[in-house]
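## Example pair
The file below holds two records. Each record gives the amino-acid sequence first, followed by its structure token line.
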Amino acid sequence: MITYVKGLLTTVEESSVVIETGGIGYEILCANPYHFQEDLNKEVRVHTYHYIREDSQNLYGFKKKEDKQLFSQLLNVSGIGPKGALAILGTVSVPEFVSAIEQEDDKYLTKFPGVGKKTARQMILDLKGKLVVWLPDEQNEDTIFYQEDLTSKEKRARMDDAIEALKALGYTDKEVKMVRAELEKGKQGSVDDYVRQGLQLLMKT
């Protein structure tokens, strides 16, 4: 099992990143590859899940260990595969998802791509009570923006990367333009912050 990959981030694409280490380039599939845009051409460590099947082997990557653990838990739910698990992780933070599970909010869960009412109920049945250990600490970490003094140029650059990430997920120029207007009214943050906030806004439309 490949637990993580540490090396030079050489490429950020629509669905994956490439990390070079020891002369080998590892393609790692991610929920939101543009979360790593700020680290392009820098050394990074990505938590990975090595997904093995008879006809294929894929590496799935995550910035946070908790995201990897949730991905692993989601794969144990009937009806959820790697693609569906990534779609969920690309839309909400761990504490938001845990809260929905604990509150048995199947209406909220069915907003995720490919999740119907039956799958939502299955997730609640399989996961309720198993994820609460992450809720307190993760909630504090994910809901507070980084307190940085960004210049207008730096904020604009991060916002641009976040908008590109949303487009890569299939949202139209019109949709992301509306979201950007809302994000610019809010607090400053990292690319990851902006992407998560943007996805939350898009889910409400």
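Second record, same layout:
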Amino acid sequence: MADELALVVGLGNPGPKYEGNRHNVGFLVLDELAARVRGKFKAHKGGAEIVEGRLAGRRVVLAKPRSFMNLSGGPVAGAANFFKVAPADVIVVHDELDLPYGTVRMKLGGGDNGHNGLRSITKSLGTKDYLRVRFGVDRPPGRMDPADYVLRDFSAAERKELAFELDRTADAVEALLTDGLEAAQNKFH
């Protein structure tokens, strides 16, 4: 495992219209990780933008699907197949409504909890057994539709802390790569 290639995927929607949305927090974390490996995302034939490099001493492919969130599975499975990465070495970074803002939680497998990006990835990989790094975006206020809420930008108050929270989430991904799931959970949960 020490030098096995890992595929780290950030979930989001492509295009400037969605850049600051809560749903795009996976893309934002991947941008931080790409800066750490001094890489720039480039289009890849599998339907994702990728950066190859070393992160925390481990070979990684960072990937941002160019499809919309609900169709993330095809590009993720395409990258996993192209780079010959087993689902157990796939890490998906995504937004999570059921966690308070900025909370980071990691797990292996589990359900999609209504997250269409995860549902698509699970279907395309043929398994739920991939790693997830969940970034809390909190529940929508009042009776707001969760789908509308995640497609809104972070609030001004959230943006004040966002750079710190993204940096901490990138640290969690690095801990997952170097120390494994249990040790990373003990450090960040």
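Notes on the second record: The domain at 6-188 is CATH 3.40.50.1470 (Rossmann fold). The chain has one domain: 6-188.
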